[in-house]
Amino acid sequence: MTDTLDLAARLRFVLVRTSHPGNIGSAARAIRTMGFERLDLVLPARFPDPDATALAAGADAVLDAAGIHRTLVEGLAGSNLALGLSARRRGVNLPEISPREAAAQALAAAARGEQVAMVFGNERTGLENEELAHCHAMVRIPSVDDFSSLNLSQAVQVMAYELRIAMLQDTPAPPPPMHDEPPADATQMEQFYEHLAQTLDDIDFHKGRTPTTIMLRLRKLFQRAQMDERELRMLHGILADAQRMAGLAGVKKG
Ligand code: SAH
Questions:
Q1: What is the DSSP code string of 203-217?
Q2: Residue 171 — pLDDT band, cuts 50, 70, 90?
Q3: Residue nearest to atom 3 of ligand 1 (CA)
Q4: In whole angstroms, what is the distance from residue 236 CA to residue 71 CA?
Q5: 187: how many CB neighbours lie within 10 A of its CB?
Q6: Residues 104, 137: contact at Cβ < 8 Å?
Q7: What is the distance between the alpha carbons of residues 218 and 231, in angstroms, rounded to a whole number?
Q8: What is the pLDDT of residue 29?
Q9: Which residues form a coiled coil (predicted)?
Q10: Going by CA atoms, what residue is nearest to atom 5 of ligand 1?
């Protein structure tokens, strides 16, 4: 049986572009009370900051150990499953799940030895579509429609609470692995998307159109597949061959 501490260590809370350092402190306290320690900050507006320390109310170790990153991809490095918390239903068309379902999925993944990230957006703008594109599902706390947005650290608290409740229930025997190979992590997926974008360019797939929308759609497609490393190697191989053939055919972009 997997120890709860091991499971908790595989879960991280990633706060993206947080404006108010007080919210970072409150989030640290929220996760610490529920047995979690791992906080990752992507482009925080102000950190470290006395307001963060004050609101952490003693959860200083979480703040001290917090990772600070310049990009979400960096904040997600090593993670295999990313769940994005969002108050708004966005145009990204990700599967939408409840915090309870998210907790179940997160713990099942952690029990398989995977690393899981719970991702939270900026206080005013939330998670952008481009940020949600790095996630495998969108988690919505079922607040009322006409006032749906929780304070950031309170959303963190709700999610951490659900994870805690799920962990307190008998830890299930780890489910069989989904793959016989290690699942791809966020960094490997990002390398794949770069290779894919470059290849589409090389084969002149876009024909002058801007690649942004198609790349977001392709990300969604491949995120849904939750590929393992062997599958990723195979796709890299296909892309490399397509690039080689495009080179031989002398495809030139107009
Ligand atoms: N106007 C923003 C609100 C941001 S609140 C929006 O619509 O997304 C800051 C963060 O707290 C959000 O990015 C999200 O991660 C989390 N959050 C707040 N309310 C939430 C809810 N009802 N469900 C899920 N996450 C929520």
A1: TT-STTS-SHHHHHH
A2: low
A3: 126
A4: 24
A5: 14
A6: no
A7: 16
A8: 98
A9: none
A10: 123
Give distance in angstroms: CA of 91 to centre of ligand 1: 15
Is the torsion defined by CA of 113, 102, 30, 166 positive or negative?
negative
Kindly report the average pLDDT of the chain as a whole number: 93
Do residues 74 and 41 make contact, with C-beta atoms less than 8 angstroms apart? Answer: no
Full set of structural domains in the chain with CATH: 4-168 (3.40.1280.10), 186-252 (1.10.8)
pLDDT of residue 233: 97
- In short, whether 127's Cβ falls inside 6 Å of ligand 1 is yes
Residue 89, C-beta contacts closer than 8 angstroms, at least 6 positions apart: 96, 138, 140
When pLDDT is averaged across residues 176-203 and rounded to a whole number, the result is 90
* Contact of 246 with 202, CB cutoff 8 Å: yes
Tens digit of each residue's pLDDT (9 = 90 or more) over 64-123: 999 999 999 999 999 999 999 999 876 777 899 999 999 999 999 999 999 999 999 999
Task: For ligand 1, say whether the CB of 90 is within 6 Å of any of its atoms.
Answer: no
Ligand 1 centroid–CA 87 distance in Å is 4
CB distance 143 to ligand 1 below 6 Å: yes
Q: Please tell me the predicted confidence (pLDDT) of residue 252.
A: 60
